[in-house]
Design a protein that fits this description.
Layout (H helix, E strand, L loop, with lengths): L6 E14 L2 E8 L10 E5 L6 E4 L10 E6 L5 H7 L6 E8 L17 E6 L3 H12 L7 E7 L8 H10 L3 E7 L8 E2 L2 H8 L7 E5 L2 H13 L9
Parallel strand pairs: 7-8, 7-11, 8-9, 9-10
Antiparallel strand pairs: 1-2, 1-6, 2-5, 3-4, 3-6
């Protein structure tokens, strides 16, 4: 299937779901065919002049809806307007745009080292979309998925991730909390938990999405642990 080239189109808000006090899930209906792959993002707005980037949060839905997970970091009027939208509202969307991608070599089942997907907060969205596409393959390498969040309630799709890990023997899921202690979860910075579990990252393929300081710290520490810098995204 050919992918869409980035261009503007209208999309309709079909439904909005509250995930946490400051995070929601939007489902958008494109007005024309919109083909994408896991790891891409769109530019979203109310008009053509002020568009903001948001990652697509799932592989293709059977109903062709586009799923976004959006956290209100800004407490801005723009975000308040977005969070107040009702189903039927029209939005302007430009995309898809490239962000994360696994090449054919990385997803070969005979690859010995795992693919490590690391999400910080709503960085979960593109990592989940990449995961969806990997799990849809007939065969794939082992996948290790880490999700770092501040508190338990910020792991808004935790139960679904547990179900996926139970269903797929080659998927291992590890949630990590940075600001709350809970006996059921690891505590600390998510990339440091990766290193605690796997001190030697040579041969691994790593994708990270989260706050920029987290990504910078992860890259530096992972390269020091043997990760080939070209295998970090």
């Amino acid at each position: 299937m050919a992918l869409s080239t980035p261009h503007l189109q209208d999309m309709t808000l079909v439904r909005r779901q509250s995930l946490t006090d400051d995070t929601c899930k939007l489902f958008l209906q494109p007005s024309e065919p919109f083909h994408y792959r896991g790891g891409q993002y769109v530019m979203l707005g109310f008009n053509d002049t002020e568009l903001k980037p948001f990652s697509i949060a799932a592989a293709h839905h059977q109903d062709d809806l586009i799923e976004l997970h959006i956290r209100d970091h800004e407490q801005s009027a723009w975000m308040q307007q977005l969070f107040a939208l009702e189903p039927g509202a029209a939005l302007r969307v430009k995309g898809p745009n490239d962000q994360y991608h696994l090449d054919a070599e990385a997803v070969k089942a005979e690859t010995f080292s795992p693919i490590i997907l690391i999400a910080g907060g709503t960085g979960f969205a593109p990592m989940k979309a990449v995961l969806d596409e990997l799990l849809a393959l007939e065969t794939h390498p082992p996948i290790v998925f880490y999700w770092g969040a501040r508190t338990r309630k910020d792991l808004y799709d935790h139960e679904r991730m547990l179900q996926l890990a139970d269903t797929h023997t080659l998927l291992h899921y590890t949630p990590v909390l940075s600001e709350e202690k809970d006996s059921d979860f690891y505590t600390g910075l998510v990339h440091q938990q990766v290193l605690a579990d796997r001190p030697d990252l040579s041969g691994c393929r790593v994708l990270v999405c989260g706050p920029w300081p987290m990504q910078e710290a992860a890259k530096a520490d992972f390269v020091a642990a043997g990760l080939d810098e070209t295998l970090f995204n």
